[in-house]
Structure formats: structure tokens, C-alpha cells
Amino acid sequence: MNKKWVNRISGLYLGDQVQMHNGVASGINQKHAATQLTVQFDRVVGNSEADPKHHGGLDRVLHHFPREHYGQYRRWDLMSNFKDAPSMGENISTVGVNESLVNIGDIVQIGDVTLQVTQPRSPCFKLNVQFEQPKFALAMQESRMCGWFYRVLSEGVIRPSDSICLIERKSDISIAKAMQIYFLPEFDAEQYQTLLACEGLAQSWVESLQRRLAQQSIEDWAMRLYGKAS
Questions:
Q1: Which of 14, 155, 166, 191 could make an SS bond with 3 (beta carbons 3.0 to 4.6 A apart)?
Q2: Ramachandran sector of residue 168 (left: φ over 0; alpha: ψ -120 to 50; beta: rest)
Q3: Of the candidates 102, 193, 114, which has an alpha carbon nearest to the alpha carbon of residue 148?
């Protein structure tokens, strides 16, 4: 399989500064346009995360977010001010490929870098702070317009002129479907097992689903979505 997703990247972004915004440490506003991304197995050179426990790591080296989603969030009046890439903290911005077209485990070629799709973005309360909307993270969770993360299979350089090609498909579960399953409001062991069977799924999601199955319950999402316990 060799299917071109996009002919040319809309934007590349990185940043390694952290700022406090309403008492919350975040690097989301410190991303800036880059002429290229130097991609290593464990990081993008010049890029860092304010909260490495929940962001970054080998399964989340690069964040890809569809640029057209900004327009939809604006139409939903979920952005108090005009926002565009890289306001979501993304590294890669494109037009033409979205969460319904990208599957868990997809092997992707960008320039001389080979990547694997690992998980959707799990929206957190920092997005509420970023966009001054108390339920932005919940809206992203429910709409599944979240973007996705990559692990790195071969290192190299990504440039804006590079196309993005799907090289190999490892599962039939799209990012949108993975979001739907993972954030089902009711416990569903069968659906969790379906998602767990996806080759390439991020280890943190594997462990989370396994905990749910062991405990026969879903964890409380309030802290992640709103920054406070329910």
C-alpha cells in the first residue's frame, strides 16, 4: 500500500518554552513555525512538553492536527478569539486528512521519516484554559476532532514540502472509532477488547483499557477534562 494523504504539509511547529497561564504550566502557546523538524526516536529536536507524564514519550513524539478543525471549532463558538495553527500545540498541520481516514497502527512516510499512528489526542483541561471555554476539552472528546500522535520508526528530517503517504495499514479501527470506543459513557468489555487488538496502539492506552477490564469500571474523567475532581 502506498496512498498519498496530502501533497504538501500546511505547517510544521515546535517549541521548548513553558509558560504559566492561569496557574497552569503549558507549552501549548510556545510553538512556532519551523522550516523543518529534526525527528529522533524519542523527540523532535527543539521541542519539549510541560507535562512529560501525560504528553510526549516514545508513543507521542509528534502531534498531527487537521487545520480545517479550527474553522469548525470557531463555527461552534468555542474559541473566544481567532485561533489557528499551532494553537492546539501541534507539530504537523495539514488539510485533507482527518480522524476518519487515519487508523491506529498506520505506518506513514513523511520525507525520510517513518512514523506509526499510536493514539488519538486525549483532550485535557488545558485546552479549556487555552481557548477560554470551560467545556472545550469535552467538546473535543465528543466530536472526536482531536488529531493523533505518532511514534518514530526511522529518524530523519521533515520539511513543509514533503508529502504524507500511508505505507501500511495495521488495523481497521480509525482514530475517530478509537475515540468513540475509549470514551464510551458506559463500560463495554467487548469494545475495549476490539481496540486492544489494534497493532501499534499506544502503551498508555493499552494499560488503561486493561485496568478497566480488570476493575470492570471506567476511571473518573473529571480531573482530565476540568482540572478538578468531580
A1: 166
A2: beta
A3: 102
